[in-house]
Amino acid sequence: MATSARRANTPAEDEERSAADGSQVRNSDFVQSLDRGLAVIRAFGPDRERLSLSEVARATGLTRAATRRFLLTLVKLGYVRSDGREFSLRPRVLELGYAYLSGLALPEVAAPHLEELVARVRESSSISVLDGDHIVYVARVPTKRIMTVSISVGTRFPAYATSMGRVLLAGMSQEDLDRYLAEADLEAITSRTVTDSDRLREIVTEVSKQGFAIVDQELEEGLRAVAAPIRGTSGAVTAAINLSAHASRVSLAAMRADLLPALLETASRIEADLRSQSVS
């Protein structure tokens, strides 16, 4: 008696079938295809503006077949462009973060205070929040460009190597900080970057006690920054504000004596405005 031949699975189907056995997919509320599509978008960044299909596959851990399907879907939806060989993000991806930023009162409350601070000390100032292991810039007023990497709203940096990141880590619960230090990949970004988790814990503990953080050329050679917390109405640290300056122009002593007092004063004024807004 003849039997019908079974059609072989495509590589993408095999991947989806094997993934269906994973712990994440056992949760019926978890949509893995959405997770993978977002991973494809996150593969792009400031130093990865244009990527080939193979590079995206390598960055996401997806097969080439699955990566191709996600990229072509994003191209059709208008989030990615392709020249036939390489892919890059289109401005429409900004829509994905606009809903969050437009509902965040902090940037518009802080904006006039940042402008006043920058005019006063003539150094760039920014505000960021913590997103996983990274800080994300939500407001910025620059002066001269002092970094090789352009910074704008939405820019992300590893928390451990930044002044604002250390302020935000200092605002974590002990349990969350333990988890962060156990899981974070502490790579050396410059020769000065602290990559020892025990040393980083000591620094974060000190930041928590003194109420500010200074980072000296750990994110980029020649860049110094000082940061302070911005606390919400409950007293919890919700964001961080910084001032950044070139090391050849501003010494560590000047950063403490001249920039830190102005920064702390600005953070206090932003907190006051946020409290009055929540009451009104």
Give the SSE map.
Blueprint: H1 11-19, H2 23-26, H3 32-42, E1 50-52, H4 53-60, H5 64-77, E2 80-82, E3 86-89, H6 94-102, H7 105-121, E4 124-131, E5 134-141, E6 156-158, H8 163-170, H9 174-183, H10 197-210, E7 213-216, E8 223-231, E9 237-246, H11 252-279
Antiparallel strand pairs: 1-3, 2-3, 4-5, 4-9, 5-6, 7-8, 8-9
Report what the structure shows.
The chain has 280 residues and is an alpha+beta fold. It folds into two domains: 20-91, Arc Repressor Mutant, subunit A; 104-279, Beta-Lactamase (2-Layer Sandwich), CATH 3.30.450.40. It has eleven helices and nine strands. The strands form two sheets. The protein has a six-stranded antiparallel sheet, sandwiched between helices. A three-stranded antiparallel sheet has the order 1-3-2. 29% of the residues are buried.
Instruction: Provide the spatial order of strands within the biggest beta sheet.
Output: 6-5-4-9-8-7
CATH architecture of the largest domain: 2-Layer Sandwich
Low-confidence stretches: 1-25
> Mean of the pLDDT scores?
85
CATH topology of the largest domain: Beta-Lactamase
State the fourth-level CATH superfamily of the largest domain. Answer: GAF domain
Quick overview:
With 280 residues, this protein is of the alpha+beta class.
Task: List the main descriptive attributes of the protein structure presented here.
disordered N terminus, alpha+beta, six-stranded antiparallel sheet, Arc Repressor Mutant, subunit A, 2 domains
